Amino acid sequence: MELLNAIVVLANFVLIPALAYGSQIALGALGITLIYGILRFAHFAHGDIMAFGTGIVILVTWWLQGQGIGLGPFPTALLALPVGIVATVLYLLAADRTVYRFYRKVKAKPMILVMASLGVMFVTNGITRLIMGPSEQRFADGERFIISVRDFRDWTGLAEGLAFRSAQALTIVVALIAMSLLFWFLNRTRAGKSMRAYSDNEDLALLSGINPERVVVITWAIAGTLMVLAGTLYGLDKSYRPFTYFQLLLPFFAAAIVGGLGNPMGAIIGGYVVAFAEMGITYAWRRVVGYLGPEGWEPAGLMQILPVDYKFAVTFGILVLVLIFRPTGIFKGRTL
Amino acid sequence: MKKLLFATAVSALAAGGAFAQEVRIGILLGFTGPIESITPHMADGAEVAFAEINESGEWLGGQTIASVRADTGCVDSSLAQASAERLISSEGAIAIMGADCSGVTRAVLENVAMATGVPMISPSATSPGFTTFDSGGLFYRTAPSDARQGQLLSDIVLGRGIDTVAVTHTNNDYGAGLANAFVENFTAAGGTVTTTIPHEEARGDYSAEVGSLASAGGDALMVLGYVDGGTNIIRTAYELGAFETFFVGDGVFTEDMPNIVGEAAAGVVGTVPSSVGTAAENWERVGTDSGINWSSSFVAESYDAAALLALAAQAAGEATSAGIAANVLRVANGPGEEIHAGDLARGLQILAEGGEIDYVGATGVNLIGPGEAAGTYREYMFEDGQLTTVQFH
């Protein structure tokens, strides 16, 4: 019984939230790693374009809700996703045409492209704030819980409760589907193979007749899709506000670098490593230890490694450690 | 607004006479920065009071008040001090209605107002620090201090039979000050605070904060912050089953709570500064007639701050900084005839005839010595999704 309670507390406050959060980071980091691998620069506008795409999804969701169109127990935002994805991909392609293509043509150094993406980030941030405003927007609807804390307590008779929100389940499922589709695409289709070839060796790929502009377009299309998915799932699970999406940039890059830049599998593993580290290190383990230890041994302190305020510091710490001791990341990616 | 403009225009014309003199009073608020959305309404509130006084023609034998607005930036001490210096030295202001945020108010008070002997009445600085700060009788405020709110929250929690709580506060002077005041009072009265955790505003996710609060435990969660982070924490804590009962400070007050946090609203009890009875009704009438956004935050307090400055000058019989500073407490606390919002002309008359008044104003003003206002708080909760008042304190 004590053991069960300990597991339930841990699942409620750490395992389930970290799994959902990790999936969102993994989707974002996948985009970063793809762009880094194929276009060869660190895409700083990632978080803000995610906010832009999610903003479009929210506007369409509101319109659908106004029309009385819904998906029953599922959030209406799922219906709005395609519109958001198309808009975001078009936006990314426009940015590529007006900004990045020039630097690619003159074979500019990666750092110049990074600075250009920083500019795109500021412009996008401004556009999103003009359209959506700086404050929090709500768009979640449908069934909120699969298991709610109070129901769980009634069913099991345990002292601790467990909440499993539909947005968390949706995040995990959608992320799994998106990741499998991406791997199938990269490994089995002609376009995917040409992308990997272009990433491995640009000159050889060009010699064997691969059209570089086509590879670029496909890369932006995939990255845009992943951004809108990650952004919408994050918004459904937590909350939408342009500023918080900008803050997600740090965990995204940390995940991509921890896993190995340019390596899709690494980005996914990195996403979960960052999420579980953030949640685990800042979690107060007092209750869990209290259940596991002998009767009356519940510690007086919170048993917390770092206070919650240091959540971002954890991510930063992981990033620094990886860069010092294993710059290529877990899966031998490129070095920055 | 039209009426206000008209009234100001009329009084400006009336002031054209040879006998009339124009006295300047500064309105020093954060017209730019974090609270820029509410400061224009606060300035309007103060100007309504000045317009009412000018219209009466009773102020110091027919003199009129001209207000001069200046910016504090809310968090920019150097800007606030420069503005205050400009008000006093080049505009010739004899008193200041302001400043707004606690930090800049303290800076202006210490470095400008106390150096020049100009009195200030702040409508919105709620930091407990002012209660014990010795300004030499120059600083007053019409918004009640968070020290009192902390005491009140402690009483409310204990009164509901709860003696262990976890506390989370927004990570700034306001949040930390209020949390401090609450924790001190609560532990002194025999309660136990399991933990105090600061939180940042505008985060996407508060489950880590809630996780720590849940591990610390407690029968209720005290949330001292703003609507944004506060409601997010309440919702997360309720959904994770960490807490069922919540107490919130004035910053988290919103009528929209049931829409934002769902069924968790049934467990929320909070306090918010509020005026009651005839004082509130009179203010509503004055505010509606003048066409300003009278129900916005701290507008009533601004009206009171402005009216107090003018009434104090009338009591002194002269429009000087020293005269105002010496007479604020006399007109604010009585004993004497009660003066409500819209009644300023009568107050001026009584003072001119050598009588005494007790200024009640828009918010039930009652000053406890320099730097401290008693104020009235409303204890509220949500029943069936509706905001209901438990009682007034």
Overall description:
The complex is a heterodimer of chains A (336) and B (393). Chain A is mostly helical. Helix content of chain A is 72%, strand content 1%. The termini of chain A are far apart. Chain B is an alpha/beta fold and 393 residues long. Chain B has two domains: 2-145 and 276-361, Rossmann fold, CATH 3.40.50.2300; 147-274 and 376-392, Response regulator (Rossmann fold), CATH 3.40.50.2300. In chain B, helix 9 (227-239) links the parallel strand 8 (220-224) and strand 9. The two termini of chain B are 34 Å apart. At the A-B interface, helix 1, helix 5, helix 10 and helix 12 of A face strand 7, helix 8 and helix 9 of B.
Q: Which term fits the overall shape of chain B?
A: elongated
Which oligomeric form is depicted?
heterodimer
Helix content of chain A: over 70%
CATH topology of chain A: ABC transporter involved in vitamin B12 uptake, BtuC
How many separate helices of chain B? 14
CATH level-4 homologous superfamily of the largest domain in chain B: Response regulator
Helix/strand-derived class of chain B?
Answer: alpha/beta
Name some characteristics of this structure:
heterodimer; A: mainly alpha; ABC transporter involved in vitamin B12 uptake, BtuC; two-stranded antiparallel sheet; 14 helices; B: 393 residues; alpha/beta; Rossmann fold; 2 domains; 7-stranded mixed β-sheet; 5-stranded parallel β-sheet; 14 strands; 45% helix
Task: Provide a concise account of the structure shown.
The complex is a heterodimer of chains A (336) and B (393). Chain A has 336 residues and is mainly alpha-helical. In chain A, 72% of the residues lie in helices and 1% in strands.
Please outline the helices and strands.
The complex is a heterodimer of chains A (336) and B (393).
Chain A: H1 2-38, H2 46-66, H3 77-105, H4 110-132, E1 145-147, H5 149-156, E2 164-165, H6 166-188, H7 190-200, H8 202-207, H9 212-237, H10 242-247, H11 249-259, H12 264-282, H13 286-292, H14 311-325
Antiparallel strand pairs in A: 1-2
Helix pairs in contact in A: 1-6, 1-9, 1-11, 1-12, 1-13, 2-3, 2-4, 2-9, 3-4, 3-9, 6-7, 6-9, 7-9, 11-12, 11-14, 12-14
Chain B: H1 2-14, E1 22-29, H2 39-56, E2 64-71, H3 77-90, E3 96-98, H4 102-116, E4 120-122, H5 129-132, E5 139-141, H6 146-159, E6 164-170, H7 173-188, E7 192-199, H8 207-216, E8 220-224, H9 227-239, E9 246-248, H10 257-261, E10 268-273, H11 277-290, H12 299-316, H13 321-333, E11 337-340, H14 344-352, E12 357-361, E13 377-383, E14 386-392
Parallel strand pairs in B: 1-2, 1-3, 3-4, 4-5, 6-7, 6-8, 8-9, 9-10, 11-12
Antiparallel strand pairs in B: 10-13, 13-14
